[in-house]
Automatic annotation (TrEMBL):
InterPro entries, per the entry: 4Fe-4S_dom (IPR007202), 4Fe4S_Fe-S-bd (IPR017896), 4Fe4S_Fe_S_CS (IPR017900), 4Fe4S_Ferredoxin_RnfB (IPR050395), Elect_transpt_cplx_RnfB/RsxB (IPR010207)
4Fe-4S ferredoxin-type domain span: 133-163, 164-193, 207-238, 240-267, 269-298, 299-328
Annotated [4Fe-4S] cluster 2 binding sites: C139, C143, C149, C183
MF annotations from Gene Ontology: 4 iron, 4 sulfur cluster binding; electron transfer activity; metal ion binding
Localisation: Cell membrane
The name this protein goes by in its record: Ion-translocating oxidoreductase complex subunit B
Protein family (similarity comment): Belongs to the 4Fe4S bacterial-type ferredoxin family. RnfB subfamily.
Residues involved in [4Fe-4S] cluster 1 binding: C51, C54, C59, C76
Family annotation (SUPFAM superfamilies): 4Fe-4S ferredoxins (SSF54862)
Sequence positions that bind [4Fe-4S] cluster 3: C153, C173, C176, C179
Length: 334
């Protein structure tokens, strides 16, 4: 091909491309759909994580639906109280207070607690392994430990621990719920961040069936239901179900559980201290389920700190307020 002909071909194609570019630019400018002002304002205050947890493809789709009145204005699980307040101001409505939620693992059956029934080779993923005989763990309801939740978390809030169980960073977790929906074994759930005590087992089996498969599995003994002073637990399908509206996070169920199936998120618990104002009425002794208080009638009682779990039941019943709780739970919620 001659250089002259090659130059003409390049010039022709370049000119044609430039002309088509002008046409597309004109069309984009002339026929551009203008976003609603409310939509633009809502989009500007959203986290722009585009995680899809709201049920829409991204933040833009959510903002558009909210502006049209087709979606819950407070349906973004990632938004904090400040963001919800801004959206309410844009729409001219009242903001709904909502406590921040975080994802928690409701299974403790790691490599040490729950063995595997067979060996697998090659690339492993929780979803594919779950399809093979309900997974390779001894307990068919246990966390498989292959980290699918780590892969799907858009905020890098989950990592795999040494015991092949996911570890959730509570500061990074936004409560979007993607990991909860994606987990094939349903061993992740959302809880209010202020909730400290919860059952970490999902197996509906009981007795020897559980004991033979997992050392920390709930085997439906019912002790926690009996000792709860607030009737916040009841047995359903061989598992204690907690009523969060009644539970005070006292932690009694945690310490009474023979298999340690409960988790307590509190980094530290306070302990009771009895002042010199104590008249020895003995009310505190009656409610303490751990025999952590001793003393003779009509004399000042004392707390055996090694036995005190910091439940606070004695503090509540002391008629003369001679008991104080020393220390803190270790969590400061915003």
């Amino acid at each position: 091909m001659s250089p002259d002909l090659l130059f003409k071909a390049v010039a022709l194609l370049g000119g044609l491309g430039f002309l088509l570019g002008l046409v597309l630019t004109f069309a984009a400018t002339r026929f551009r759909l203008k976003r609603d002002e409310k939509e633009e304002a809502i989009l500007s205050v959203l986290p722009n994580a585009n995680c899809g947890a709201c049920g829409f493809p991204g933040c833009a789709g959510f903002a558009e639906s909210v502006a049209r009145g087709e979606a819950d204005p407070f349906g973004c699980p990632v938004s904090d109280a400040e963001t919800r307040e801004k959206i309410a101001q844009i729409l001219g409505i009242e903001s709904k207070p909502k406590e921040r939620e975080i994802a928690v693992l409701i299974c403790q059956g790691g490599e040490k607690e729950c063995g595997r029934r067979f060996n697998l080779w090659g690339e492993k993923d929780c979803r594919s392994v779950a399809l093979l005989h309900s997974g390779d763990k001894e307990c068919p309801y246990a966390c498989l430990g292959y980290g699918h939740c780590v892969k799907v978390c858009p905020f890098s809030a989950i990592r795999m621990g040494e015991n092949s169980l996911p570890v959730i960073d509570e500061e990074k977790c936004t409560g979007c719920g993607i990991c909860v929906r994606e987990c094939p074994k349903k061993v992740l759930r959302l809880l209010p961040k202020s909730k400290l005590v919860y059952l970490a087992c999902v197996s509906p089996e009981k007795g020897k069936e559980v004991r033979d498969k997992c050392s920390v599995g709930c085997f439906a003994c019912g002790i926690c239901v009996k000792v709860c002073p607030y009737s916040a637990l009841k047995m359903e399908n061989n598992l204690p179900v907690m009523d969060f509206s009644l539970c005070t996070d006292c932690g009694i169920c945690v310490h009474k559980c023979p298999t340690k199936s409960y988790r307590d998120r509190a980094k530290a618990r306070p302990y009771a201290m009895i002042s010199t104002a104590c008249n020895g009425c003995g009310e505190c002794v009656k409610v303490c389920q751990f025999k952590a208080i001793e003393g003779k009638p009509q004399e000042r009682h004392r707390v055996i700190i090694e036995k005190c779990i910091g439940c606070g039941e004695c503090f509540k019943v002391c008629p003369i307020k001679a008991i104080t709780m020393v220390g803190a739970l270790g969590y400061a919620y915003k």
